[in-house]
Amino acid sequence: MTQAQIQGGAALDGAGRLAAINAIPDQIERLRAIMAALRDPQTGCPWDIEQTFDTIAPYTIEEAHEVADAIAREAWDEFPSELGDLLLQVVFQAQIASEAGLFDFDDVTRKISDKLIFRHPHVFGEESRDKSAEQQVKDWEEIKARERASRAEKGVLDGVALGLPALTRAVKLQNRAARVGFDWPGVGDVLDKLVEETAEVVEARDHLGKEALTEEFGDLMFVMANLARHLEIDPEEALRAANTKFTRRFGAIEAALAAQGRRPEDSDLAEMDALWDAAKAAERA
């Protein structure tokens, strides 16, 4: 039975649809058939039927973060499931697009296949493979610049996705600007700018309103992203590591208090700060 027959199989009961889907040998095609059945207006799932590009997009972002989390924790037993959740987002969006007559899953896979071939002329063409990873990154960016030009994206910053995490997008914007010479010469210049922006945050806190303070704080964060870029640090990765460290050390505070039959709300800042220092020293030891 084909995917279209399963999707339109109002005559089939649930068990019949399941049997037909499970008979599909190719797992990608099986997943597509399941998604089509879930979206069927007569026999599908009411929740799945109601979804749109916009309502699914937040789940796509969430699932990408869960993939990254599984990698960070080296949770290899969870990894296939998390990758499957992310793949589902692609299949879901492609199914919605297919129903709207925009494109289908085959268009998605064709586009990425063509893009990979085009961006690797040293593998699928006549260019030499004898180049460093750094040179390959430079070549990759030049190819992407030609692609942007073909899409009539004229500005240097055109095409940097708005939906990226803010720190990641800041770094990408700065990298684009740096390629045309708009960049601080060295780390020292960025640190000087950091001091300046910190002073402006203090000024806004003491003398200006919340709107001005928010703007100055944003400027400070933007310079922090630039500092990370100059230090060749991924700011998202660094902040995730700091979050993990904070969680671990605060957990040590809770454990120490629990050993006394107490909770954090039964303590005070001075005691918890001392317990924090103890946890920190224990980690370093």
Q: Enumerate how many helices there are, as a single number.
A: 14
Computed CA radius of gyration, to the nearest angstrom: 26 Å
- Main sheet properties: none
Q: Please state the average pLDDT score.
A: 87
Catalogue the unreliable spans.
none
The H/E string reads HHHHHHHHHHHHHH
- Structural class by sheet pairing and helices: mainly alpha
The proportion of residues in beta strands is under 5%
Number of strands: 0
Distance between the termini: 63 Å
Label the overall shape.
Answer: extended
Task: Outline the structure in words.
There is one protein chain. The model has no long low-confidence stretch (mean pLDDT 87). Helix 13 (235-258) packs across helix 14. It is built from 14 helices and no strands. The N and C termini lie far apart (63 Å). The protein is mostly helical. The chain has helices spanning 3-7, 14-22, 27-38, 46-50, 53-72, 79-99, 105-118, 121-124, 133-150, 166-179, 187-207, 210-230, 235-258, 269-284. The radius of gyration is 26 Å and the shape is extended.
Brief overview, please?
The mean pLDDT is 87.
What's the layout of helices and strands?
Elements: H1 3-7, H2 14-22, H3 27-38, H4 46-50, H5 53-72, H6 79-99, H7 105-118, H8 121-124, H9 133-150, H10 166-179, H11 187-207, H12 210-230, H13 235-258, H14 269-284
Helix pairs in contact: 3-6, 5-6, 10-12, 11-12, 13-14
Record keyword descriptors for this entry.
extended, 14 helices, 72% helix, mainly alpha, 285 residues
